[in-house]
Every structure is written in structure tokens, then in C-alpha cells.
Specification:
The complex is a heterodimer. Chain A is α+β, with helices and mostly antiparallel strands. Chain A is built from ten helices and 14 strands. Chain A has helices at residues 12-22, 35-40, 75-80, 85-92, 97-100, 105-108, 117-124, 210-216, 223-236, 247-266, and strands at residues 5-7, 27-29, 48-51, 60-62, 66-70, 128-133, 136-141, 146-148, 151-152, 159-166, 172-178, 186-193, 196-200, 207-208. The chains are: A alpha+beta, B alpha+beta.
Chain lengths: 274, 161
């Protein structure tokens, strides 16, 4: 163990102060389910680590028109809420019970693909992220958060503190397709809400399938429109190959599971136990 | 690297340990305190053999910095085991051959304890879902599921586990 100090701030201002004092070398963790495996394995050798478990960010607030989720709310608590069925479904399909008790909603936005099932659902829900830094807070649409594989628009002196979701009366669907039913990385995750389609595990980060959305816009949701959207989604993603699936296979599965998700959405299944 | 002192409750008793920063709960329990039911499996959160309960909730102790659980209540299989005989969950695993090499068993049994505390009458699907993060490399899942069903039945017969 090479870690010199493990900081455990108990407030956001304290965490931001530590971030400013120690700079970008400070590794920020929360639930630890992404960083600790790399540290245990000796792949990551941080000198200084800051844990956000006690920073007071494990909050969940339901307002009249939106839900505000603190960055370190556990996936177990996300899976228990009843305000946003799509998020409940995505959280339930992520990892395993013990991991969901530790893993956080905010952490899922930093999970390298093929992880990031909750992030994919948040993207379909038009979520916004709140970043806090020295110069105050700013809010970004989640669509502008990721800039590449494991890179984001968050500055080195900022922390992700909350995720806000507008509450809308619209049907949704979530499908995670993997090698097995549970506790597995995705080959593809598809989240559909209203007229928005998000894909996970088939690009450098979760993406909105804009061409697929365009193929559906202003058309009746018939077989032809759904097929056109599914084909557009398969064309517009940039899948990678890993131990689970080839690029070719992922692209094929995008077409199939976008089609299925749109059918499930039409059937009003809300992705509850997909 | 300055060591730090961490206090928590371990199976009903207060303990205090001196650790290097970011030491995991798994390492403290097994290597420092000799609670060898807590296995050192994958250290990736992928196998479940280090599962312990923190304030009654199952967690992977290999991913948990011990400093994060200061002041909290940790339960391992040692606490479940009575001075004489076996806990009903252990007995159910025994009766149903719910283990082969035994390496995953403590994690499986702690998961079972948490599951039955939350849900005394789980369906088979709920058992399978709860077990998703605990791997048995002897692949003896059917007897494990049978053991948990038996433990649930024994629990309802006796009132509580």
C-alpha cells in the first residue's frame, strides 16, 4: 500500500478545499467499486486519495417537477425509489446487491464502458449534472458531460455533486443485454424515455442515438419506423471489442435491442423487470 | 505514510485498529484480527467471498477502506456461529450440501443472513437475484439455493434467524 493519506471530508466545501490544496494528483473516490479494484491490483498507485462517502452527498430530493440526486446516493437507494421507473430498472440491473450497496449514482458517470448502465438511463432522461468548484456551481446537460473515453467536461478543481432529472409523464424502457442475466457487464444497454434513445457499452461513453431519434420524429410508431430507428442506431454508434463481444456483434445487438426497447416502451412496460 | 487509528463495532464488541491509509476492511478483519471467515478472493468485488454486513447490509469488504466504516457495526460469520453447534443458516447449508470446497461459504451465508433479515420468505427468483454477486467456482449453486430455501423455512418455524 503506497497511499500516504486518505482524506475523508465531511462537507462539499471541505472536499473542494482539499481538491484545491492537493491538485489533480488527488484521486477522488466515493463507493470505491471502480477505484479500489485497481488499487488492490497495483494498477493504480495513488499517493493521495479523497473519499466522498461522508461528504453529505447521499441525498435524494423529489420536487414538484424534478428529482435531485446527490452524487453519492447508493445504487441500492436508487433501485428503491418509485419516482423514476427507468432509473429503478437500470439500477436493479447494475452489478450485484453488495456492490449496489456501495456504488454511487455519481460514480456510475465515471465508470468506463461497458459499465455505466445507470449513466445510460440518466442520459435518456435528459439529466443535468451539477459541478461545484472554486468559482461556484455550474450545471451542464449530461449530453455535454462526456468528451471521450474516460474524459469529461469537469475541470480538475471541480466535483460532481448532484444529478437532476425532470419528471415527465412519459413511457420508458430499459434493456441491458449481457452474457448472463445479472452481475455482468453489458454488451449493450438501451434506455428509451419519451422520444429519446440512449445507448451504453457501444461507444467511448453513453451516447444519445440522435439519428435513431430523428427516424422516429413525427412518425407513427409503426414497424417501419421502429426498424428504421434501430438500423440508424446500429449505424451511428462506434462499438469496441472486448472479452465479452466483438465490435460487429455489439452493432448487431444494438439493432435488435433498440427495436425491442421501442416495442417495450410502446407496450408500457417501463423497463421494470426487463 | 502516517498510520491512523480506526474504531468500529465488530460483532458486538468495540475494536480499535491501527492501519495504513486506505487499508481495506477485508485485510483488517482477516490479517490483523484473525477473522478468517472473511476470504481473500479476487479483491475486485467480483466474487463475494469477502462479504460482511455493515450495519446489517452486505458489502464487499475488499473494496471498503476501513476508515470509511469508523463507528459502524460490522458482522462476520464468526458472530453468527454460536459457541455450541451451528446457526440455522449454517445447519441448512450443511444439511443441503450447500458447499463443496467451502471457500465461498462464509460469503454465501452472510448474504443469506442479510437476505432473510430483509425478506424472511424469499422466492427462488429473489434468492437467485440476491446471490448474483457471490461466485461458487465449484458451481454448486442448486444446493446453495436449496440451503437458503431450507434456512428460510427453518427461520419461519423458529420465529427468527
Amino acid at each position: 500500500m503506497t497511499v500516504a493519506t486518505y482524506f475523508r471530508p465531511t462537507s462539499v466545501p471541505e472536499a473542494l478545499g482539499l481538491l484545491e490544496e492537493h491538485g489533480p494528483e488527488l484521486l477522488v473516490i466515493a463507493g470505491g467499486t471502480i477505484a479500489m479494484p485497481l488499487i488492490n491490483e497495483g494498477i493504480s498507485l495513488p499517493r493521495e486519495v479523497m473519499g466522498l462517502r461522508h461528504a453529505g452527498l447521499d441525498t435524494y430530493e423529489r420536487g414538484a417537477s424534478e428529482v435531485r440526486i446527490g452524487a453519492t446516493l447508493s445504487l441500492t437507494r436508487l433501485a428503491e425509489q418509485n419516482d423514476v421507473p427507468l432509473l429503478r430498472a437500470a439500477a436493479r440491473r447494475t452489478a450485484s446487491w453488495s456492490i449496489r450497496n456501495m456504488a454511487t449514482v455519481g460514480g456510475n458517470l465515471f465508470a468506463p464502458p461497458p459499465a455505466g448502465d445507470v449513466a445510460t438511463a440518466l442520459l435518456a432522461l435528459d439529466a443535468r449534472v451539477t459541478l461545484s468548484g472554486r468559482h461556484g456551481e455550474r450545471e451542464l446537460p449530461l449530453t455535454d458531460f462526456w468528451t471521450g473515453f474516460m474524459t469529461t467536461a469537469m475541470a480538475a478543481d471541480e466535483l460532481l455533486i448532484a444529478i437532476t432529472i425532470p419528471l415527465r409523464d412519459e413511457s420508458s424502457a430499459f434493456i441491458k443485454f449481457g452474457r448472463k442475466e445479472a452481475n455482468t457487464p453489458a454488451i449493450v444497454s438501451v434506455a428509451v424515455a419519451g422520444d429519446r434513445i440512449a445507448l451504453g457499452a457501444v461507444d467511448a461513453h453513453p451516447i444519445r442515438a440522435r439519428n435513431a431519434e430523428a427516424a422516429l420524429a413525427g412518425k407513427p410508431r409503426d414497424e417501419a419506423a421502429i426498424t428504421a430507428a434501430a438500423e440508424a442506431a446500429a449505424d451511428e454508434c462506434e462499438p469496441f471489442a472486448d472479452a465479452l463481444a466483438s465490435e460487429w456483434y455489439r452493432r448487431r445487438m444494438v439493432r435488435i435491442f433498440v427495436e425491442r426497447a421501442l416495442h417495450e416502451q410502446a407496450a408500457g412496460m417501463n423497463g421494470t423487470e426487463a | 505514510m502516517a498510520s491512523v487509528i480506526v474504531s468500529f463495532e465488530l460483532s458486538g464488541r468495540p475494536v480499535e485498529v491501527m492501519v495504513a491509509p486506505l487499508t481495506t476492511l477485508q485485510s483488517v478483519l482477516r490479517n490483523q484480527l484473525g477473522f478468517t471467515s472473511v476470504k481473500d478472493g479476487c479483491r475486485q468485488g467480483g466474487c463475494g467471498s469477502c462479504t460482511v454486513l455493515v450495519d446489517g447490509e452486505p458489502m464487499m469488504s475488499c473494496l471498503l477502506p476501513v476508515e470509511d466504516i469508523a463507528g459502524r457495526r460490522v458482522t462476520t460469520l464468526e458472530a453468527l456461529t454460536p459457541p455450541e453447534g451451528l446457526h440455522p443458516i449454517q445447519q441448512a447449508f450443511m444439511d443441503n450440501n450447500g458447499y463443496q470446497c467451502g471457500y465461498c461459504t462464509p460469503g454465501m451465508e452472510m448474504l443469506t443472513k442479510a437476505l432473510l433479515d430483509h425478506n424472511p420468505h424469499p422466492t427462488r427468483d429473489q434468492i437467485v437475484d440476491a446471490l448474483a454477486g457471490n461466485v461458487c467456482r465449484c458451481t454448486g449453486y442448486r444446493p446453495i439455493i436449496a440451503a437458503i430455501e431450507a434456512a428460510a423455512a427453518a427461520g419461519s418455524a423458529e420465529g427468527a434467524l
